[in-house]
Every structure is written in structure tokens, then in C-alpha cells.
Amino acid sequence: MAPIALLPFLILNLAVATAAPPLRPRFYEKTCPEAEHLVRDVIKKNMEREPRSAASVNRLQFHDCFVNGCDGSLLLDDTSNMLGEKLSLSNINSLRSYEVIDEAKETLEGVCPGVVSCADILIMAARDAVVLSGGPDWEVKLGRQDSLTASQKDADDIMPSPRANASYLIDLFRKFNLSAKDLVALSGSHSIGKGRCFSIVFRLYNQSGTGRPDPAIDPIFRENLDKLCPRGGDGNVTGGLDATPERFDNQYFKDLMNGRGFLNSDQTLFTYPKTRQYVRLFARNRDEFLKAFVEGMIKLGDLQSGRPGEIRQNCRVVNSRPVDELM
Length: 327
Ligand code: HEM
Ligand SMILES: *[C@@H]1O[C@H](CO)[C@@H](O)[C@H](O)[C@H]1NC(C)=O
Ligand SMILES: *[C@@H]1O[C@H](CO)[C@@H](O)[C@H](O)[C@H]1NC(C)=O
Ligand SMILES: *[C@@H]1O[C@H](CO)[C@@H](O)[C@H](O)[C@H]1NC(C)=O
Ligand SMILES: *[C@@H]1O[C@H](CO)[C@@H](O)[C@H](O)[C@H]1NC(C)=O
Known about the structure:
Layout: H1 7-16, H2 35-49, H3 53-65, H4 98-111, H5 118-131, H6 152-158, H7 166-174, H8 180-187, E1 194-196, H9 201-205, H10 219-228, E2 238-240, H11 251-257, H12 264-271, H13 273-284, H14 286-301
Antiparallel strand pairs: 1-2
Helix pairs in contact: 2-4, 2-5, 3-5, 8-13, 8-14, 11-13, 13-14
Residues 52, 55-56, 58-59, 61-62, 94, 96, 160, 162, 164, 169, 183, 186-187, 189-190, 192-196, 199, 241, 263, 265 line the site of protoporphyrin IX containing FE.
């Protein structure tokens, strides 16, 4: 017998626990046929306003899906009794363009209220960001539900630091059934977007506590980075993650081969033998990269928590429900 005090929780769970149907393409074909089209328009409009928003939106998929599955938990604002993921170590002062997802959600709520989850919007948006940056297009599986909670601690524990090395990243990705090849292909997202000086000063001036720079950085590239990010300078200044940060292409891998990776976690993919072969392959063959990237994004999008969910009305807050008042 459940103790009486647990009853409100049980009721809450019954109220929202709908067995999650399998994800599938064209999930909203009948219930919101314009959904994918409308999300793409919002991403496009925002890119015209600010090109970097594409990269920022793309990154949200990784940070949502690795922490308890692709459930929109990333998008929840903190509340007085829940510390969410936005202020976690990897996300604070770093993740951005949440308002682009809000805009897509508002648009869809205007057309088909209560139908399209924030978790799905994020998956569509991450794909659209790639397409609109000159990358591949693919069909996304949909039908996710939005989480009822979020965990700052889980995000802190899971999300990798820019200092991470390839062997750590291989092990981390394996926990999500993602291979070394998936790791390298998905890191190719860094073909677009920017990173902060805060994320690289250690490797410019004190790699692994040696008091020396990372020896894997090309000397001329390092001079440029030193100018961008002087010792003791503004950690919020940003630089491109590859030489063409607005184009989704395989330049990122060519840069890694030339010691021109921005992040330590990027450059180490070339330093380390098990991942180097894929960096070489993707640098040489753009189509191999695009194919592996799409496969990786689909696998990343398949991660699910199995927990009960809902279709949020506002991506930043869980829907209010009467049972809340009992608690
Ligand atoms: C392999 C492990 C990864 C690490 C350690 C990592 C780390 C980082 C870091 C440190 C930044 C710059 C943040 C800042 O300085 O504020 C960044 C940016 C970015 N990351 Fe990753 N990342 C990884 C994998 C991924 C994956 C799998 C994706 C997408 C599928 C992704 C997409 C992006 C994008 C698009 C940006 C640029 C965002 C912007 O310009 O706002 N990253 N990442
Ligand atoms: C990679 O990082 C892990 C964890 O931070 C560390 O234990 C390991 O020694 C590093 N490996 C190499 C080859 O530097
Ligand atoms: C990885 O695959 C195994 C075997 O198919 C499965 O049991 C496990 O739940 C998967 N893990 C994740 C995080 O998807
Ligand atoms: C470099 O890092 C080591 C270990 O973290 C630290 O003890 C040392 O003070 C740092 N040196 C500089 C110049 O910041
Ligand atoms: C970057 O800017 C934010 C917000 O203005 C500030 O709180 C933070 O301390 C800055 N971070 C760094 C590394 O300088």
C-alpha cells in the first residue's frame, strides 16, 4: 500500500502518463500539417536578423538530448523549487537563442494550440539551422513529449567540458550508444557558430597545468587566438569554431588537420588515433561527413527518458494543473 502522502504524486502521474508512442516522421501531418514549415520560417527569419542564431539553436538539441533524453527539459526556466539546466556549468552564459524556440512555439500555439511539443520544435529547429546554413536536409522523427521537470545537477554531471579529451568523449558518447564515428560527425556541428575565450584560455596559456600552450595548436593560429583572447581579457569575447562559422561544411575537419581547432575537445579528435581516421575521412569527403552527421543527429534525437510528459503551452514552464494545488 502506498502511504497516503504519496497519493497526490500517483494522481499526478496517472494524469500525465500516456504511454509514449514511438517517434515517427510526419507525426503532425494530420494534427498540425503546417508545423514543420512554420518552424523553418521562424528559424530563417531569425537568421536574417542574426546569422549566429542558427548555430545557437542547433546546439540546443545536443544539450537537451544528452540530459534525460530529448524532452525539452533544457528549455524550462528555474523556479523556486526547481533548479533547471539553463544555469548549469556548460550552459550558463553560453547557450543562447532560447527566444527563437519561444517564437516558434508561439507561432504554433496560434495555429494548433496544445499539439506540438517544445521537445519536437527543438529537433525541427536544430535540423532547419543546418539546412539553412548550407548543410544537408533530412526527415526528423517526431512525437516527443515535454518533461515535467529539469535537473541542473544532471546537466552538470553529464555535459562535457571544452577541456575534455577524445578518450573521455568516446566513453561519454558510448553511454548514449553513439560510436566514435558518431562523436566525430556530431562534433562537425562546430562547423557553425562561435565559442568564448573563457572556453579556450586554459589551452592558450596553461594546458593541463603545464604553464604552456597546447602543443597541438598551429603557431600562427595560436598568435591569432592570443590576440583575440589575451591573458586576463574578457572571457565573453567570441571566435569562430572553424574558418567558415556561418557555413555548414567540412571546413571544420580540414582545420583540425591543420591544428586550427578552436576548442581543446575539437583538436583532440585529431590528436587521438581512434578518432583521427574519421577526421581525415570527413575532411577528404564532404558527403561521408554529411551522411554520418545526419545519422548521428537522428540517433541523438532518439534518446528518450521514458518518463511521463506533456505538451507544454509555454516552453519555459510546465503546464499548471489542479493537482499542483494539493502539493
Ligand atoms: C563532443 C563534445 C562537445 C563539446 C565538448 C562541446 C563544447 C562546446 C563549447 C565549449 C562550445 C562553445 C561554448 C562557449 O564558449 O560559450 C560549443 C559550441 C557549439 N556546439 Fe558544441 N560541444 C560538443 C558537441 C556538440 C554537438 C554534438 C553539437 C550538435 C549536435 C554541438 C553544437 C555546437 C554548436 C552549433 C556550437 C556553437 C553555438 C553558438 O554559436 O551559439 N556541439 N560546443
Ligand atoms: C583524458 O581525460 C581523462 C579524464 O579527464 C584523463 O583521466 C585522461 O588521463 C586523459 N587522457 C589523456 C590521453 O590525456
Ligand atoms: C543502448 O542500447 C542498449 C541495447 O540496445 C539499450 O539497452 C540501452 O537502453 C541504450 N541506451 C541508451 C542511452 O539509449
Ligand atoms: C596553471 O595551472 C596549474 C594547475 O591548475 C596552476 O597550479 C598554475 O598556477 C597555473 N599557472 C598559471 C600561470 O595560471
Ligand atoms: C560574461 O557575461 C556575463 C553576463 O553579462 C557575466 O555574468 C559573466 O561573468 C561574463 N563571463 C565571463 C567569463 O567574463
